[in-house]
Amino acid sequence: MTDSLIITDPHPGVRLLTLSRPERRNALDRATYRALGEGLVAAAADDAVRAVVLTGAGGCFTAGNDLADFQDTSNTGEPSAGLTFLSVLSTFEKPVVAAVEGFAVGIGTTLLLHCDLAYAGAGARFRLPFVNLGLCPEGASSYLLPRIAGTKRAAELLLLGEAFGADAAAEAGIVNAVTQAGEALARALDKAQALAALPPESLVTTKRLLRHATAAPVAGALALEAERFHALRLRPAAQAAFAAFFKR
Predict the structure, then answer these.
(1) N or C: which end of the chain has fewer CB within 10 A?
(2) Do 32 and 5 form a contact (C-beta atoms < 8 A)?
(3) Exposure of 131 by Cβ count < 10 A (0-12 exposed, 13-18 middle, 19+ buried)?
């Protein structure tokens, strides 16, 4: 457990990772990304863990990247904490189930593309505001979203960056189903328990087969997007957008 991530085992075989930065609507800073990656690595190494559930505390999934980090223009040459987390999530071999309530902004939406199952409460609000912030898509969303939502819908969501609701997220294939408000976690835990009761070797093998054909393209998209994202983040348009956000 860290200040920003709560790790529990609510049911046998089920590991629950709960984002907990209520003062920032669970926005993901570097420390939280590191905690998430480490939490997944630990779950992968623990034979008692059969499935992982990812959610946010306080009725909010995540408001996305913490823009305060994006105002830091220093360059260490090391992969970003966000990219490291996404690389771990995209190659994680056990089932991952997401439960979304409240806001799922930016990476709060794109990380769902790497989860095996995802459920959203009826009041959940999604948005991919990368272009609006002077940035570009991340999380391999430029590759995965057209595959699951179709090219026209993906273009609408990524180019315009408009907010959309849980029903639209389900129609686009970003989540499996919409629950009543406040019940997404219960549904996710129920599905995780069902997964945890199945033969683990069969689960892992099936997930590997499902992702075999897309593993290399996803890895390539993650790297290319990260390169372009970082370059755009340093440009005046993006820095002005970040400054305007904090003035509001």
Answers:
(1) C
(2) yes
(3) middle
Checking if the pLDDT of 164 tops 60, the result is yes
- C-alpha distances (whole Å) from 201 to each of 14, 50, 129, 197 are 16, 10, 39, 12
Is the pLDDT at 18 greater than 80? The verdict is yes
How many Cβ atoms sit within 10 Å of the Cβ of residue 192? 26
* Residue 45 and residue 8 in contact, taking contact as beta carbons nearer than 8 Å: no
| Sequence-ordered list of residues with C-beta below 8 angstroms from that of 43, at least 6 positions apart, any chain | 15, 17, 49, 52, 92, 94
Strands laid side by side in the 177-179 sheet: 5-11, 14-19, 51-56, 96-100, 117-121, 177-179
The three-class DSSP label of residue 187 is helix
R_g over Cα of the chain: 17
Roughly what angle, to the nearest 10 degrees, separates helices 215-233 and 81-91?
170
Structure tokens at 82: 């966000």
Q: Using the predicted structure, report yes or no on whether residue 1 has a pLDDT greater than 70.
A: no
Report whether 192 contacts 78 (CB < 8 A): no
Q: What is the Cα 82 distance to its own chain's centre? A: 10
Distance in angstroms (rounded) separating the CA atoms of residues 50 and 198: 9
**pLDDT tens-place string over residues 55-97:** 999 999 999 999 887 777 666 567 789 999 999 999 999 999 9
pLDDT score of 77: 62
What's the token pair of residue 154? Answer: 């993906």
CA dist., res. 245 & res. 68, Å (int): 10
Determine the length of the chain.
248
- How far apart are the C-alpha atoms of 202 and 82, rounded to whole Å? 30
